[in-house]
Design a protein that fits this description.
Aspartate Aminotransferase, domain 2; 2 domains; seven-stranded mixed β-sheet; 13 helices; binds pyridoxal-5'-phosphate
Length: 356
């Protein structure tokens, strides 16, 4: 038998790095504030999923998640033909690039932003054009427009700083580009969303996630909203059964408990604002304004990688973005439960004050 190292790969795939996910420890006991998961799941969701564990699991799921698609259409006041349900929002981002970008086309996005976009461009043989954000994370709309992408991604609120971008800027950008994808993975924690742009313009697509706002990162569930013609193309490109039975049940149950979720989003926003104040006031750190369930913290004269390491020594995980020289001394910290934030604050205070 041939050893696998002798398989001839596509040269670009052989050379590519692949997406590097945040650390996911296999043992319990960690305070995980590194990948923006939610600290809670609505109780009714767990009950519904438990009840759905039956011999029905031998059957394939509904290929287009019809019931969930209709509920989401209702929620966002669009027709069901404007919705595709996906295996996490990553799946939506992936099939968008597959459906729209030919090899050699451009994928355009601001930088720093979600590091999956360049990976998707690479897999498709597209050219990635990254346009640097301003030093206060302002969106470089003119550069983004003039890069002439087949697909232009803007995450809003953006990862890693939580900056939310104005509807007028996004509308202007959409008017200049082939397809504007607004990645709203964190938008439930923001003051408003940009769904109205989907109703207004045929070349705006919004992607959403059940991972961050509904506490279902482990289920893998997301969706996209867009013009029916685009959504129809995405259905032709997706895996035949891209969303499992249990994920569909979890999504429907999460929407049944929307009042619980809305209260949870409000709590996280309040906790985020209080935590940011504490970091600025008591610890003298610089925190960028965030509309997401995380904050981006400049470590000033302290070395961010040292702080990250010391936190990890206390089994607290936060994320650092070393690749971007402008923001390499910052940490991104997810907003967890009240207890988790108290634990983090105590550890940070000790590290910054006592170990200096
Ligand atoms: C901006 C952004 N979009 C999308 C995702 C992926 O979300 P999902 O879990 O729905 O695939 C993430 C995850 O970190 C993200 O930061």
């Amino acid at each position: 038998m041939k050893s696998s190292s002798t398989v001839r790969l596509r040269p670009d795939v052989a050379a590519m790095q692949g997406y590097v996910p945040g650390q996911q420890p296999s043992e319990s006991g960690w305070t995980k504030l590194n990948t923006n998961e939610s600290p809670a799941v609505a109780p009714g969701v767990l009950k519904a999923v438990r009840e759905a564990v039956s011999s029905e699991l031998r059957l394939y799921p509904d290929p287009t998640s019809r019931a969930l698609r209709e509920r989401l259409a209702d929620r966002h006041k669009v027709v069901p033909e404007s919705v595709i349900v996906t295996n996490g929002s990553d799946d939506a981002l992936n099939i968008l690039v597959r459906a729209v970008c030919s090899p050699g086309d451009r994928v355009v996005a601001p930088k720093p932003s979600y590091s999956l976009y360049p990976v998707l461009a690479g897999i498709q043989g597209a050219e990635m054009v990254s346009c640097s954000l301003g030093d206060r994370f302002e969106l470089p709309i003119r550069q983004l427009a003039s890069a002439r992408g087949a697909v232009t991604f803007v995450s809003s609120p953006n990862n890693p700083a939580g900056t939310h971008y104005a509807a007028d800027d996004l509308r202007w950008l959409a008017e200049q580009t082939n397809l504007l994808v607004i990645d709203e993975a964190y938008v439930e924690y923001a003051s408003d969303d940009r769904v109205a742009l989907v109703r207004e313009l045929p070349n705006v697509c919004i992607t959403r996630s059940f991972s961050k706002a509904f506490g279902l990162a482990g289920v893998r569930l997301g969706y996209a909203l867009g013009h029916p013609e685009l959504i129809d193309a995405l259905h032709r490109v997706k895996d035949s059964y891209n969303v499992g039975r249990l994920a569909q049940v979890a999504g429907l149950a999460a929407l049944d408990e929307i009042a619980w979720a809305e209260k949870h989003w409000e709590d996280i926003r309040a906790r985020r604002n209080k935590f940011a104040k504490e970091l600025c006031g008591n610890l003298g750190l610089h925190v960028y304004p965030s509309e997401a369930n995380f904050v981006f913290v400049e470590c000033g004269d302290r070395d961010a990688s040292d702080v990250q390491e010391k936190l990890a020594g206390r089994r607290i995980l936060v994320r650092r973005f070393a690749e971007d020289p402008l923001f390499s001394n910052a940490l991104r910290i997810s907003i967890g439960s009240e207890e988790e934030m108290a634990r983090l604050l105590e550890a940070l205070t000790y590290i910054l004050r006592m170990e200096n």
